[in-house]
Prior knowledge:
Mean pLDDT: 87
Number of strands: 11
Helix content: 40-55%
Structural class: alpha/beta
Radius of gyration: 29 Å
Strand content: 5-15%
Low-confidence stretches: none
Number of helices: 21
Amino acid sequence: MYRIPxxxxxxxAQIVEKVKEEYRRASEVRKKLGTVVDKVETIIAExxxxxxxxxxxxxxxxxxxxxxxxxLSRERLAFKLAEDIIYSSIGxxxxxxxxxxxxxxxxxxxxxxxxxxxxxxxxxxxxxxxxPDGSSYLAVYFAGPIRxxxxxxxxxxxILADSIRRLLNLDRYKPTEEEIKRFKEELRTYVRMVSRFxxxxxxxxxxxxxxxxxxxxxxxxxxxxxxxSYRNLPRVxxxxxxxxxxxxxxxxxxxxxxxxLKLVEMLGLSGWEWLQEVAEEFSKIHSASSAEESYLNExxxxxxxxxxxxxxxxxxxxxxxxxNTGMAAVGVHPMTMKVxxxxxxxxxxxxxDYPGKGGVAMPVDTIEPPRVLLDDGSVVKVDNDLTYAExxxxxxxxxxxxxxxxSFGDCIENNVxxxxxxxxxxxxxxxxxxxxxxAGGIEKVARMLDMNPGRLKLLVEDPLIFKPTDREALRLSxxxxxxxxxxxxxxxxxxxxxxxxxxx
Length: 504
């Protein structure tokens, strides 16, 4: 059961009672009208554990989830539940039924809050089939609704299926040349005639994945479009496109190869070493392709593009968290929102190129604000409402959008390398603290600089709020050999020699 704070208990109880009363009234109306079902079909679930049990089952799984959810990570919990379901079903259920139950339950746990169709409808069937050499292997049939799950969950489902295969001592899937070619043909036909995938994966990586994935990733037909060639294959039951299976391989196993590798290493599974090569090669191909072209291809008509990758004037990367940012929630300066005339507002979903696919914009006023060019030729840092009110009708061009605040946890979650960031206040404060410690401490340095010790301490401990004056910044740099404070650093790397000479 979900435990609510005591002060809200009475209020919550009243809401629950009113909802139950509405359900009772609706059921009475249905009985009087003689409807086929004389009660409201939608069941109220107390928490995520109960939703999993009601959505996909099996009965009694909610208690296990509640018992283990605070002891295991989400992925380990899913694998543990799947293992328990398999072992508890031996002799009671057919192996194929037990495997499907384990996969659906695990997928539901991995896609909180368990309200999408992926766990209940994304896995259409599971079969134990025969390889050409007579050995038995596992085949998972994916359906269209599997797209509701993220790429990471798609990958985890395949790895989970491999784990179950090992528990049941089944052999690997051994694809024929025709089956591999059929899958590649379906992929290209799907992109050409139905829809784009998130990633553009070359054929040789698709082939490498299909030859090495230890289970058969197949599916039911999702579109009324025939595969152009390699039809009527003995182990492929349909001649139509299998959109769910295509998405699992393209956007899951290959597109999320780094995350898959991380999960495999965490669980200690062997036989997936080939993922390292796929991840490295896909990363090279993905980074070498034109990021700008990729962005523009995916822009929906009428949506604004604020900046292109690695172009000066766009958002500057900054690591950290505010109280209102975190996983997939990024910080943008509130004056940036105003300068952009509200095209970015609190809660706006932004498509990003790093560290993941996107994030929700939240206002954070302690990061670098935007710079604008006015109609009189002056350049202004817009860092507060008063400044914005003075310049809003004079802005000719936005020269710099300001910082975008990305949490370190997002980088871990997306398994990406950390990129270099701009020089910022918290970085400067750490360097200042180091030099002060080496010079003998706050009191000694304050006397040397003729500064108030309390003021110097604030500059070190709260650099986002307290910033040095221009004279203090110069004094600290000359005396302690620390870099000039970021507030007084210009973007010198973006000026030409000719422009520098002109300024001098």
